[in-house]
Each structure stands twice: as C-alpha cells, then as structure tokens.
UniProtKB/TrEMBL annotation:
The keyword Transmembrane applies. The lineage of its organism: Bacteria, Bacillati, Bacillota, Bacilli, Bacillales. This is VanZ-like domain-containing protein. Residues 50-191 form the VanZ-like domain. InterPro entries: Teicoplanin_resist-assoc, UCP031578_Vanz/RDD, VanZ-like. The chain crosses the membrane at residues 6-32, 44-64, 111-133, 140-163, 175-193, 219-238, 250-274, 286-307, 319-340. It comes from Paenibacillus nuruki. Keywords: Membrane, Transmembrane, Transmembrane helix. It holds the Pfam family VanZ. The keyword Iron does not apply.
Length: 381
C-alpha cells in the first residue's frame, strides 16, 4: 500500500530539477517585473509549491497503464455516491467495535488509508493558498475543489485522450476528501503564518540603494535581447542589407538604447537600464554606448564572427585554419575567465563597462506596501 505512494513521489523528485529549470526563466521575469528583485523567502516558497504540485500530480496519474489501448474498467469509471468510503470500510475492515484492541487495525487497511491520503494530498495546497496567496476561506474552498476536480477529470479522460479509457474511477468521495484537505491546510497555515515572515510584508524594509544588478538578471536580459537582435539580423539579410551583423548590432544595442535612455527589450522586461557613472551626466551618451557595445559586439563577437567564417572556408590552408581556431579559442577563453573572475568579486565591473564608464541600474516598480489589516481584507484568487 505504502509502496504505491512512494513510487510516484520518487519520480516527482527525479523530474523536479528538469521542471524547475524550465520554471526558472518565467519565475525570474515575473519577480523582476513585479517586485524589482528576488526575495529568498518568496523564491523558496514558490519552488516548494512547484515541487508539491508535481508530487500531487504524479500521485494522481501514476502508475500509468501498460498500453495506450487500455481496456475499460470492469465496474465502470464513475462513483457518484457520497460517503461510499464508509460502506467500503465497514465491508472490508477487521475492526470489531466491541473489542478496542482491534482498533489499531484500521491504520493499515486500504479503505481507511485511502481516505487519509486523499485528505493529506491537498493539505499543502490549502497552506500555500493562505500563506502565500492570502486567499480567504471561500476562495480556498473553491480552489481546493477545482484542483480535485482537475485530478479526477484527468483520470476519467485517460489523461485527456492519451489512453482509450479511464484507468481510475472518478470518485465523488475523492472530491470531498481533497476539498476537506485543502480547508485543513488553510487552517493550519493560519497558525504557521504567525511564525513565518508575512509574504505581503517582505518588501517593506528593503534597502533599494543596496540592491545591485546581478549577473543572473543581466543574463536573462542578454538572452532575450540576443533573440530579438538575431531576428533583426535575419530581416536585414533577407532584404539584402550589407554587413547585417554590424548594422543590426549597431541599431539594436547602440541607437535604440540611446533613444530609450539605456533600455532594450530584454532590459525593459527585467527592469534594468544602462546609465553613465559620470556624476554630471543624467543619461548615457551615444559615445558611451558605442564604446560599451562596440567592444562587446563589434570587437569580441565581431572577431568571433570573422574567425568562424574563416575556419569554415573550403580553400583555406590548414595552417591558417589552425591559427584561426587557436586565436578564437584564446579570445573566448580569455573573455570567459574575465567574466568568471568578475562574477566572484563583489563590486567589480566588466572591462567594457569600465572603459565606457557605464553601469546597470534597477528600474524599480511601485511596490504595494499595504498594512497587515489591509492585506487580510483583500481577496486574491
């Protein structure tokens, strides 16, 4: 009995790192957009929620049928009689109510354990709803019921048509037990919340001046900008614009940030912008942007582009191909080492930032710093 529950949980933990990796990028973007920074408590809570949902979902769908063409359930796939589990327990139990010494037997019997596990399944869900999302009890009741209904529908439809027939029964008792579990979790969270930092107060006392733009944040902006820049370069190539690599990088990384006061699409999404470190300059200059991004894209990436093209030329001499490959390796490994050394040195800047006298700043959102009474009056579904 217990093995049937441990098996899905083990698979959920194995799959969690891969799902968490996919979850990280949208998580970072939402947190940067909404709060302007990443708070550890908020991050840990959301990743725990993801882990819980994966465990709950795997418990619901696993084990899967051996074939997509599974047979229909012999006794039907619907159980719509409320409290049927009471009848099942009385029918199967070895407990004698006239002999108290047999009461402990119920703790190892299928009918009893199934009810207990169905209740426990959604207790964490109710806790997350109350502690993190600050929903009221009626919203918690509805959302717990909806989660359970999704579980049962997934089973009834054979995971939405993947399997020919339902491989588990749609049981109304499961809906009742799961909903009860959500409400129990909601009540438990009321007690736990008094001993943990209140989610709605996390941003009250942050020191904005002490927050620095992390390399993680810059990497997210860089990846987004890289995609848009590449699309612009393809567009210029298709329209027979000469030297599209150089023109597209100049337009996207120099001219556009100059017009938008240091903002690109990627930087706008994660709420950062480039500004001058010179105390007399209110905005970054065209010269500073040209030095900054000229060094990064025209010198570093430009050399990569030229050397890569030379290496693949069919008629290039072997010696020259080897020299170009060696030079490309030296350039790339030197730049990588430069980034890594700066990554682990607090307050250090990259070479193109130092030479251009530019740096990143956070574009802070207007955070809602409501009082606890105000937050309790909100109904966030």
């Amino acid at each position: 009995m217990y093995q049937s529950y441990l098996f899905p949980i083990a698979y959920a933990f194995i799959a969690f790192p891969f799902v968490a990796a996919l979850f990280t990028l949208p998580f970072l973007i939402v947190q940067y957009r909404k709060y302007g920074y990443i708070h550890k408590v908020r991050a840990i809570t959301l990743y725990l929620l993801l882990l819980y949902l994966m465990n709950a979902f795997f418990l619901v769908i696993l084990p899967l049928p051996s074939s997509r063409h599974n047979p229909a359930l012999a006794n039907g796939d619907l159980q719509l009689l409320p409290l049927q589990f009471v009848y099942d327990f009385l029918k199967e139990t070895s407990v004698s109510f006239r002999h108290p010494s047999t009461y402990w037997h119920m703790f190892v019997e299928r009918a009893f354990l199934q009810v207990v596990f169905n209740i426990l399944l959604t207790v964490p869900f109710g806790m997350f709803l109350r502690y993190y999302f600050r929903v009221r009890w009626l919203s918690g009741l509805i959302l717990s019921f909806m989660l359970s209904l999704w579980f049962e529908t997934t089973q009834l439809t054979g995971i939405y048509g993947i399997y020919d027939h339902a491989y588990r029964i749609f049981d109304i008792d499961d809906l009742l037990c799961n909903t009860l579990g959500g409400i129990l979790g909601f009540l438990i969270a009321e007690w736990i919340a008094k001993r943990l930092p209140r989610i709605e107060h996390l941003d009250r006392h942050i020191d904005r001046a002490s927050k620095r733009v992390s390399y993680t944040r810059r990497a997210v902006a860089f990846m987004i900008d890289l995609v848009i820049w590449y699309l612009l370069m393809i567009l210029l190539t298709l329209n027979d614009i000469p030297i599209p690599f150089w023109i597209s990088s100049g337009i996207y990384y120099i001219l556009i940030p100059y017009w938008t006061h240091g903002i690109t699409v990627g930087k706008w999404i994660v709420r950062i912008y480039v500004t001058s470190t010179h105390p007399d300059h209110s905005r970054v200059s065209l010269l500073a942007l040209t030095i900054r991004y000229g060094l990064l894209y025209w010198v570093f990436l430009g050399l990569n582009n030229i050397l890569s093209d030379l290496i693949v030329l069919p008629d290039i001499h072997t010696v020259w191909r080897a020299l170009c490959s060696l030079l490309l390796f030296v350039i790339d490994i030197s730049f990588l080492m430069h980034i890594l050394t700066r990554l682990f040195q607090k307050g250090s800047v990259l070479c193109y930032e130092k030479l251009s006298h530019t740096k990143h700043h956070i574009q802070w959102p207007e955070l809602e710093l409501s009082t606890s009474n105000e937050a309790d009056q909100k109904v966030d579904v």
